[in-house]
From TrEMBL:
This is Transaldolase. Gene3D superfamilies: Aldolase class I (3.20.20.70). The keyword Manganese does not apply. It holds the Pfam family TAL_FSA. Keywords: Schiff base. InterPro entries: Aldolase_TIM (IPR013785), TAL/FSA (IPR001585), Transaldolase_AS (IPR018225). One of its GO terms (biological process) is carbohydrate metabolic process. PROSITE patterns: TRANSALDOLASE_1 (PS01054).
Length: 224
């Protein structure tokens, strides 16, 4: 079943979205967190309260040395609980840390992936998810759909799932979900755009107008 996660640290917005959209979790990265208002402590607490026992929570390491990444991952896992995933960029140090975290049973999302071979390396080291950056691929002329297909084929014998990230529009999301990604993490405004259509709104408007013209204030149950 396709999973949709929210790529944002705006918990107020996430709480609005979860009322009408079935989400699997939330993802952040250092750039997203650098834009928050208020303190980091309050934001992490809010993120924990929103996700604890209910949603996946993917938080990226701020370290770049192997031992420090693993240490940070352990602390964050202890803080956020079982549904926590440490996001680790696929560098040499990152790959080494992915291997170690995986041995420690800390769930890993290998991130900042731009090629199928990077995804394969992360999967081999035990990553639970690989996060290919769709829009960033397209920004430099790579065929993102082709890349997702390749990753999907290469990972066929691995339990690793594809959590596609970096989207600028709904079409990109639709396309990559068709190419074998099990999950996508999307900004709140793209989730909103994905369920909106002007003709749906017009249809609802016309239904209401036609009903009112014929029946006024009367509701359908008044006819029972
Ligand atoms: O969460 C990481 C990814 O979504 C980055 O997205 O839009 O900054 O390319 P973007």
């Amino acid at each position: 079943m396709t999973k949709i996660l929210i790529d944002s640290a705006d918990i107020k917005k996430a709480r609005e979205i979860e009322k009408y959209y079935t989400i699997a979790g939330i993802t952040t990265n250092p750039t997203i967190l650098s834009k928050i208002e208020g303190s980091l402590e309050d934001k992490l607490k809010e993120l924990k309260e929103f996700t604890y026992g209910k949603y996946e929570v993917h938080v990226q390491t701020t370290e770049s040395e192997v031992e420090k990444i693993v240490e940070e991952a352990k602390k964050l896992r202890d803080y956020f609980g079982e549904s926590f995933y440490i996001k680790i960029p696929v560098t040499k140090a990152g790959l080494e840390a992915i291997k170690l975290c995986s041995k420690e049973n800390i769930r890993v999302t290998a991130t900042a992936i731009l090629t199928a071979m990077q995804a394969l390396a992360a999967a081999k080291n035990g990553a639970n998810y690989v996060a290919p950056y769709v829009n960033r691929m397209e920004n430099v002329g790579q065929d993102a759909k082709e890349a997702i297909l390749e990753i999907s084929n290469l990972l066929i014998d691995y339990p690793t799932e594809i959590l596609a990230a970096s989207f600028k529009n709904v079409k990109q999301v639709q396309d990559i979900l068709r190419c074998g990604a099990e999950a996508a993490t999307i900004a709140p405004e793209i989730i909103e755009a994905s369920i909106w259509h002007p003709y749906t709104d017009k249809s609802v408007f016309d239904f209401e107008k036609d009903w009112e013209n014929r029946f006024g204030d009367k509701k359908i149950v008044d006819g029972i």
